[in-house]
Amino acid sequence: FGRRDADYLAGLNEEQRDAVLSLEGPLLVLAGAGTGKTRVLTTRIAHILTTRKARGSEILSVTFTNKAAREMKERIAKLVGASVEGMPWLGTFHSIGARILRRHAELVDLKSDFTILDTDDQIRLIKQLLQVENIDEKRWPARQFAGMMDNWKNRGLLPKDVSPADSGFFANGKGQKLYADYQARLKTLNAADFGDLLLECIRLFRENPEVLAEYHRRFRYMLVDEYQDSNVAQYLWLRLLAQGKPAAEANICVVGDDDQSIYGWRGAEVDNILRFEKDFPGARVIKLERNYRSTANILKAASHLIAFNEGRLGKTLQTDVAEAGDPIAVTSVWDSEEEARSIGEELEQIQRRGENLNDAAILVRASFQMREFEERFITLGLNYRVIGGPRFYERKEIRDALAYLRLVAQPADDLAFERIINTPKRGLGDSTVKILFDAARHQRQPLLATVRMLLETEELKPKQRTTLRNLVAQFDDWAERLRTIPHFELAEQILDESGYTAMWQNDKSPDSPGRLENLKELVRSMEEFETLGGFLEHIALVMDRATGDDGDAVSIMTLHSAKGLEFNNVFLPGWEEGLFPHQRSLDESGRAGLEEERRLAYVGITRARKRALISVAQNRRIHGLWQSAIPSRFLDELPADAVEVKDTGSSYGGYGYGGGAASRFNKADPFDSVYETPGWKRAQAQQASRKGGGPMTIEGDLVARSVDLGGSSSAYTFGDRVLHLKFGYGTVSGVEGNKLTIDFEKAGRKRVLDSFIKRG
Ligand code: ATP
Ligand code: MG
């Protein structure tokens, strides 16, 4: 190799070098966290390009996230400079699948500009199909079916491949037909859902050997990162692309770590990695054992913990970092609020030491944990970003729930009303909503007030009227109850009574349990405020905060989305039984579930370069109740000599800290000390400045408004001949404000709203 080549190979150890240089034939790199697997892939691409073994467009490289793809592109550009022609096909399975599909769209009955549906679109479509088939959506929820289809698609099954045993129970045997109808409907809409991006690609390859042959020729080198988390469809897709040529020409290199397989719950099959040598006879296997990321203590802790798993291939890991480094810090805190405060303090110290916040991350087990951190950081003015998902208050389920609460507090909030009128589905279709909007615009009244008006007329079909009457009655009832019960209790009741909670309970997609947890967390967070008005005010201020993503900021993300990343300081909050390991994983899949949780813990610890800080709350709200939390069993699985327990008043191993810690913090009740954030104070000040203060005025406002409505008068009088959009011609026989009684020539006597008629 020339001088330039030596540059990028120079820093590698012998095995890494071997892995980079073994370009021909199948290769599996099986190695633990931080051993340079991703680095090997990047260097390999650089090597292929600089030695001109292939052009960029002849390389296919699959990453696990789009972020990883971007980073890899940057690293390659740095390694080989801008001189090399054509960038590799570098992206996630889905993004590459989409790219291929667009090139051959017509072969899978699509046009190249097909749209990719999001989950909401998908659900809407399924609901239409259920209606056509006369399937009761209450019994057979669309979301459940979406989950089933997702599962089939992850397993590479087309409608014809779905066995009756798989689909039989749904809608009494209609599952397979629904799936087929759904796929057909997507074609007429020129659309594909996420799962199709691979599934349709597989079909394309199977049904069109000449197309597959083209890709066989094109992709001379294939590389796959995080192979342990590939699912069946991804595996089939890869195998189609890589097999069918002589084994020696199957230049496929996959890298992975069985100990980091954390997507089993989404259909990932760690077996794919075990099967590699069988699928590609003559495959080379290279192991990397030197970890370049973490200090000895961090590595020791992670290795000790993962050794408790039975189902593993077993690997050795040695640190290449000279220092033992800080021990893993385990801090016991009173509750999640104190946890956020203590991590906030640590972050400020990190800043004082001159380190960047960019080099710190908080890795949570469940997204609901994020809220407390977000609020604390906003209070502190500490920059943060949420990776791999929206900020807490921007999540769909939180926005929906807030819309209900806003409407109770402020009946004129039309945006809130729009959001919830048909969420959950109430059979109020687009045409009903349009009538409502038209009327509201004409009357210059808020939507909810307009509904009240329309209910006294026959503009809407009886069924819709009943639905709306019930909805309005519910809102009146909730507004009334707000006077007598705490707002957070009311919030819970609203979510239950509106059917919103049930909507997610019936949802069988993998993210719905997380959404339910977020809703509970929302209700919990309301307890920190004295009134609903105060709470909503706080939210408005929090949401308003600029969401600029640049600059120095601590990252908050789930453990799942932290895969492949590294940070100097890693915070691991919430190590309590039921949260981590998560109850769901224990309930559903027993030992396998527990082992996957343990791998998640391993992924978490091994993200840290210098410091890993675990925290355990002594009290956590689970299912709406404060409970003394039991420290995670994973804490007992850490080696004592690599761990330092930070809280002197408690010992996580002995479980006997409860009383001691409680007296130390001297709080009889965890609610005692929560009223101290500036946000809360701001809200309180605003409350006080409002005449009468709080929801009572708002309630008064509602009453005042409906009186006002009756008072507004109409431009029509008795005997006017008019034309109604729906009922045709008629004569006004009564006027009451803006509501008219009209004797229609065809439809008979009806009560209508004056905004829906013209002079005839
Ligand atoms: P994970 O399993 O977490 O995805 P990985 O095996 O992909 O980890 P990398 O992210 O490639 O590991 O590497 C971990 C860190 O070690 C990176 O910062 C990388 O730059 C560094 N590293 C890898 N190999 C070497 C080396 N030979 N010399 C110095 N640093 C290295
Ligand atoms: Mg990696």
From TrEMBL:
Belongs to the helicase family. UvrD subfamily. Pfam families: UvrD-helicase, UvrD_C. Keywords: ATP-binding, DNA-binding, Helicase, Hydrolase, Isomerase, Nucleotide-binding. Its EC number is 5.6.2.4. The keyword DNA-binding applies. This is DNA 3'-5' helicase. It catalyses: Couples ATP hydrolysis with the unwinding of duplex DNA by translocating in the 3'-5' direction; ATP + H2O = ADP + phosphate + H(+). CDD domains: DEXQc_UvrD, SF1_C_UvrD. ATP binds at A31, G32, A33, G34, T35, G36, K37, T38. The keyword Transcription does not apply. SUPFAM superfamilies: P-loop containing nucleoside triphosphate hydrolases. Residues 296-564 form the UvrD-like helicase C-terminal domain. PANTHER family: ATP-DEPENDENT DNA HELICASE SRS2, UVRD / RECB / PCRA DNA HELICASE FAMILY MEMBER.
